Amino acid sequence: GNSVTQMEGPVTLSEEAFLTINCTYTATGYPSLFWYVQYPGEGLQLLLKATKADDKGSNKGFEATYRKETTSFHLEKGSVQVSDSAVYFCALSGSRAGGTSYGKLTFGQGTILTVHP
Amino acid sequence: GAGVSQSPSNKVTEKGKDVELRCDPISGHTALYWYRQSLGQGLEFLIYFQGNSAPDKSGLPSDRFSAERTGGSVSTLTIQRTQQEDSAVYLCASSLAYDRAQPQHFGDGTRLSIL
Questions:
Q1: Which of B48, B91, B99 sits opposite A44 (nearest CB)?
Q2: Of B98, B42, B92, nearest to A94 (Cα)?
Q3: Chain A CB contacts of B109 below 8 Å
């Protein structure tokens, strides 16, 4: 079946530091890939997505590139802010080649990010 | 426009009671999903609807769980004879269509606590 593995947290950074959260996946065919963010006390929000190999998703200064050869979708931001403190989830939506996993989101375990002033 | 709305936001109930959770998707979204978020299991898929039909119920944890959707809109997730292991945040999401490329938009969830 499909699976997503994220780097373990928590991740603690100072403001303006560079952020990378690693995400790798296992899936049949060509899934779509997503990053969701959950701010304290709030629900899951879509941060960015990529639907085919070499696509780059970007939003709010965050970027991630769909790498088929390394089955990865690492999240990066050049300069984090205190307001970026949240839990980040990498997720995939299975392709039709994946059978019954099509269209359903499989999530990683989440990475807690804390940014200090 | 309004996002996905879930009610109640919090529910505390005694073991053995039945509970009903409600989800109101984004208007025009034909696909609707239920997930569960718990400390031990992370985020796990429960069930999805295309229109009013739920083609795959294999993600439901047991036969105490059921869900329905009416009018291609509101959905309810019902848990009968609740157990302590049912304690979790139940999340609902909707998307324009049931398609891997369509992003799913989530509600704030219902936090269910079983005493």
A1: B91
A2: B98
A3: 43
Task: Going residue by residue through chain A, which has 117 residues, state the pLDDT in tens, using 9 for 90 and above.
Answer: 889 999 888 999 999 999 999 999 999 888 999 999 999 888 899 999 999 999 999 999 999 999 999 999 999 999 999 999 999 999 999 877 666 677 789 999 999 999 999
Which among B45, B98, B109 has CB closest to A43? Answer: B109
CB contact under 8 A, A46 and B103: yes
Reported as half-sphere exposure (CB side, CA atoms, 13 A), residue B57 has a value of 10
A42 part of contact set with chain B, CB < 8 Å: yes
What gap in Å lies between CA B41 and CA B43, rounded to an integer?
Answer: 6
Q: Which residues, at least 6 apart from A83, have a Cβ–Cβ distance to it below 8 Å?
A: A115
Question: What's residue B98's pLDDT?
Answer: 87
Residues of chain B with pLDDT under 70: 1
Q: Tell me if chain B has a CB within 8 Å of the CB of A100.
A: yes
Pick A94's closest partner by Cβ from B100, B108, B109: B100
Q: Is the peptide bond before B8 cis (omega within 30 degrees of 0)?
A: yes
- Can you give B37-88 as a three-state secondary structure string? EECCCEEEEEEEEECCECCCCCCCCCCCEEEEECCCCCEEEEECCCCHHHCE
Q: What is the pLDDT of residues B27-55, one digit of tens each?
A: 999 999 999 999 878 899 999 999 999 98
Please name which of B62, B99, B4 lies closest in space to residue A105, comparing C-alpha atoms. B99
